[in-house]
Specification:
This protein is 41% helix and 17% strand. It is α/β, with parallel strands linked by helices. The protein has two domains: 86 residues, Rossmann fold, CATH 3.40.50; 127 residues, Rossmann fold. Bound molecules: NADPH dihydro-nicotinamide-adenine-dinucleotide phosphate.
């Protein structure tokens, strides 16, 4: 391996420590405790793990955590009523509805019922529009985490050629928007892109958010490029379940200048950025200055 390893686990610990410091100051100087409400509908095992981790880390940085676990058969009207209550609750500064929701619930309707100022996932249509027009918004956590790591590694991103593979609303599109806002020249690639390898080889910054295990190999990486691997894929190898990204790490690390591993790269940054967003939302709600370096 020749590439520098971008250690998301260590970076996330730094972000959490920074958030914790601000939370302590908010408490001691203003008597304010930032609060995050997480709503889980149903019993999807992966979602349960995510929600548990989020709750734990929220408490660890000194915030209040409010968990709402609802039955898989919860009626849409009841979920909307809960969100209305959380929107009005001054102790709650951030609201996250764990996705995916059971099929009978309309995710768009539910997400858009969250007060945009408390939408710490950044999925509300108002926040999407604000980000798209370069205005102050709540920024989706995973792309925000990627951006923080890229800024830390490169300093300015201006003028760099960035290729984002994947165009989902939760990762690919907001990632591309953030890179554009930081003055990269951005290409978004997807399943219909022709000559994907050729497109990827143009990238100084290559972000993979595809959901296909180890699809991007070293041959697609420009020498010296920074590779951010968002993918989380479980595969069976040698009779064991293994977590791999969308990038073939061994081959890409020989060509790239810097690379994030899976696990231990983007993943830990996502929850750290959720906490950062909750802190930001709390500061904005109370008319206090936002912490520097924790927002886009
Ligand atoms: P989606 O399935 O919503 O989107 C995948 C995107 O990849 C689509 O735009 C799709 O294109 C594109 N794609 C699929 N196959 C190909 C292909 N062969 N060539 C080029 N593009 C392709 O996934 P998400 O964006 O939600 O997630 C992407 C990955 O990131 C997943 O592995 C997920 O688990 C992971 N993830 C990790 C997070 C973290 O915290 N680290 C958080 C969120 C996601 P098209 O639109 O044309 O279908």
């Amino acid at each position: 391996m020749t590439a520098t390893l971008i250690d998301g686990k260590a970076f996330a610990a730094k972000v959490r420590a920074e958030v914790g410091k601000h939370v302590a100051t908010l408490k001691s100087e203003h008597g304010i405790v930032p609060g995050l409400a997480v709503v889980l509908v149903g019993e999807d095992p992966a979602s349960q793990v995510y929600v548990r981790n989020k709750g734990q880390q929220t408490l660890e940085v000194g915030m209040a955590s409010f968990e709402h676990k609802l039955d898989a058969s919860t009626a849409e009207a009841d979920l909307l009523a809960l969100i209305k209550t959380l929107n009005a609750d001054p102790k709650v500064h951030g609201i996250l509805v764990q996705l995916p929701l059971p099929k009978h619930l309309n995710s768009d309707l539910v997400i858009n019922s969250i007060d945009p100022a408390k939408d710490v996932d950044g999925f509300h249509i108002s926040n999407v529009g604000l980000l798209g027009t370069g205005q102050k918004s709540m920024v989706p956590c995973t792309p925000l985490g990627c951006l923080m790591m890229l800024r830390d590694h490169h300093g300015s991103l201006a003028g760099l050629e960035a290729v984002v593979v994947g165009r989902s609303n939760i990762v690919g599109k907001p990632m591309a928007q953030l890179l554009l806002n930081d003055s990269c020249t951005v290409t978004i690639a997807h399943s219909r892109t022709k000559d994907l390898g050729e497109v990827c080889r143009r990238a100084d910054i290559l972000v993979a958010a595809v959901g296909r295990p180890e699809m991007i190999t070293g041959e697609w990486v420009k020498p010296g490029a920074t590779v951010i691997d968002v993918g989380i894929n479980r595969i069976d190898r040698d009779g064991k379940t293994k977590l791999v990204g969308d990038v073939h790490f061994e081959s890409a690390a020989k060509i790239a200048g810097a690379i994030t591993p899976v696990p231990g790269g983007v993943g830990p940054m996502t929850i750290a950025c959720l906490l950062a967003n909750t802190l930001t939302a709390c500061c904005r709600a109370n008319g206090l200055p936002e912490p520097k370096g924790l927002t886009a």
